[in-house]
Each structure stands twice: as C-alpha cells, then as structure tokens.
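Margin note: ligand = coenzyme A.
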Amino acid sequence: METFNEKNYRIRQERPEDIPTVKVLIESAFRDVAESDHKEHLLVERLRHSEAFIPELSLVAESPKGEIVGHILLTRVRIVSAAGKETLSLGVAPLSVLPAWQRMGIGSVLVLEAHRCAAALNYRSAVLLGHKDYYPRLGYRKASSWNITFSYDVPEDCCMAIELCPGGLEGVQGMVCYDKAFEEV
Ligand SMILES: CC(C)(COP(=O)(O)OP(=O)(O)OC[C@H]1O[C@@H](n2cnc3c(N)ncnc32)[C@H](O)[C@@H]1OP(=O)(O)O)[C@@H](O)C(=O)NCCC(=O)NCCS
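Resulting structure:
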C-alpha cells in the first residue's frame, strides 16, 4: 500500500534494494542524538532477521526525486502480565528522518501511516520509548496509564503506548518484552 501526501513524498514498504540506503539514513539521523548509542542501524539489521520482523511494517518515506529520506520500523513485542498472560503488540523503533528533511512532518506521517498499516494487519496496539514531547501529539499516552512497564531504565514520561483500535489495550497490562534482537550481541 502506498500513499502520497500534500508534499508529494510517499510512504511505502521498504524493498530489499533499499536496505543499504536505509542503513546510511539511520546512521545519519542518529549521528548527533546525544542519547543514542549510534548502533540503531545494526539493531534494524538484526530485527530484519528476527521472528519479530513484519515486512509490511518497515516503511520508508521517498522524496519526489526517489531519495529515501525517512524510515520507521514496527516489530512484534509481547506484553506479559504478572500472571503470565501474554498480549501481542508492536514496538516502534527506530524512527529516523534524514537531518536535512527533519521538521517537515515526515516523521509524523511515517508514524501515522505505520499505525494505519498495523491496524489493517489487525494489530491492536503499539508501544515505544521515545521523546515525551513528540509522540503524544501522534496519539501516544504514558504506558503507565495501562500499567504497562518496560525493563529499561528510562523516565516514565518516555514510556508510551497507543491503541490502534478502540479498546486495543483494554485489560492489557504488564511488562513489554522485546525480541532478543534488541539485546547487544
Ligand atoms: C525525531 C524525528 C524522527 C522527528 O521527525 P521529523 O520529521 O523531524 O518530525 P516532524 O516534522 O513530524 O515533527 C516536527 C516536530 O517534532 C519536534 N521534534 C523533533 N524531534 C524532536 C525531539 N527529539 N524531541 C521533541 N520534539 C521533537 C520538532 O520540534 C517539531 O515540533 P514543531 O512542529 O512544534 O516545530 C527526527 O527528528 C529524527 O530522525 N531524529 C533523530 C533520530 C531520533 O531521535 N529518532 C526518534 C527516536 S525516539
């Protein structure tokens, strides 16, 4: 599924031939981010080979000239309650826009289009660790509103979740368990 917006860049599924370009794009996007370990491109490579990977949810933003300027990846995660109940969800990570193309709405469009694709695949929710001022404008709320927690040592404000359909997180609580690809190798 491909879409165009008013700025005429389009969001589409990543293709195998995009992978080298996307790698450079992710490295560039995170180069000056203080909180980054600058290894996000390696994480994406591991995730592509993991069971958590969903090809339809690795999306790129393409400029009118065919330049890939943004990328987003959503992969399968589990939310596991203290009683052991497991709920399938999606982890949003990473989101990258080339520095020269930032603040033009591309990151927002990537997130919203990823939500639309995920909902079409019947995924009911997504979670992420991210900037507390960025994601709420795209519909995210603190994960603690649902008693959803993360195993990472990050401020509560940065732990967020969203329902991709009405009641998508109803009755869901517990710890977000990411694929082992998220662990350093
Ligand atoms: C974060 C990122 C994906 C946003 O993409 P973008 O296309 O620039 O974002 P948009 O144009 O949709 O939104 C821009 C708005 O987000 C805000 N914003 C951008 N980065 C932000 C950040 N790190 N923290 C808080 N707000 C941020 C901008 O201030 C701008 O706000 P304004 O509209 O009030 O001026 C992009 O800046 C990026 O790739 N950054 C480096 C990698 C990164 O940090 N990824 C996110 C990890 S959680």
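The mean pLDDT is 95.
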